[in-house]
Amino acid sequence: MGDRPTDEATWSSRTDYLDAVVFPRAAAEGAFGPGAVYASFRADDRDGAAAAGDQFMSDIVFGTVTLTGAAERPAGGGVPVVVKFKNADARMSAMMNMHEKFYNEYVFYARLLPALAASAADPAAAFALFPRFLYSNATPDGGAADGHHQVIVLASVAPDGYRAADERVFLDAEHVLLALRKLGALHGLSYNAKAGGAGTSFADLCTSALVETQWYDGHWYKSPRFLSGTGGRGVNALSKSDKSGQYERAVDRMRAALNGESATMAGMLRPVEPLAVLCHGDFCRNNLLYRYDPATGRPADVVVLDPAQARYASPAVDLSFFLYMNTTDADRTAHWDRYVAAYLDGVADVTPDGRPLPLTAADVHAEMREHGLYGYAHCSFFLPAMVNAEPPDVQRLTTCTADERIELINESGGQHADDLLASIVRHMADRGYA
């Protein structure tokens, strides 16, 4: 393999780069097992969306790595892999803090997930919450020269039947319940780590190892008025439709919180013990892959992707975003307590026998009151994009001013998005979260 080019100027494609640099280095470092020697890589040109979820910020390459050598290998020596590159548009990468997010994802897989597994009664089950991590060359200074050639390599779960849910935004109760049980297991592993005699060190590991991904030039999402500028949309829509004044007080409280801008979000994200956990940070349908029962077509299992925005914070960070982003208003009304119970079942699944559960339904509701605005804030800009008939105009979003960007976001999705965001604010008020 010495004849493979290694000079960046000779890489005519990302596939060449993988073949010349990434996979030989990964094999040499033991990513594919002891004794494995890299032979070749075959890219798969199929549409990867079904097996990767809707990945807006990353570019995905699927393929098969062929190995030789003494290592025990699958039949034929082929290992199906998924390779994540940063978005090829440098402006989009910069706008979305992709260098920091890539480094966080590497840290999560290489350091934090192993720490969680070490405290688990079944370490293999802890690792199985995510696809198997194989290799990354991500660095904290990923924005430096060659930063866009940094990768994250995972074992593909597509051959095991995992794929994105057919529903692009709103999941039915079966999908939601399954995802919440896995989320509970993920959070429960944090409580195990903290209860195992090294609680402070685990919290410190999370906060010291992870880098911030949502602050840009000192502001949350690049603007001193981003929170109120986008979050005000649903609040205003509810206020306009509230002819009886039933939600006036909740609307006033929400507006006051939104007007706190970056300081409000910093408070939402500040970990408070004893209930803080290692959060996924972007737990939603786009980062979940389901496996379906071939006989019934019903979801049987789910794995989680893309912990690039992981952080140590309230469990409500993950709960509020997922439940407000990917459930309908009708399902929230019908199943909310059932959803909370499924999450707590997941925590119980990994809590050692004889140890009290680390949180209750009352704790979950209290965390939602204090930190649930996180989910609404993210839905305010993400949900309109997901229900909009046209994809986001990346060119305009990456070249316009901060105020123009807010205006574009608030136009996305039209009245339908207004109504969806208003329904979230209304639910928060009805539940006492606002």
From TrEMBL:
Q: Which domain of life is it from?
A: Eukaryota
Among Gene3D superfamilies, the record links this protein to: 3.90.1200.10
Q: Which residues cross the membrane?
A: none
Give the matching InterPro entries: CHK_kinase-like, EcKL, Kinase-like_dom_sf
Pfam families per record: EcKL
Location of the CHK kinase-like domain:
152-353
Identify this protein by name.
CHK kinase-like domain-containing protein
Q: Which organism is it from?
A: Aphis gossypii
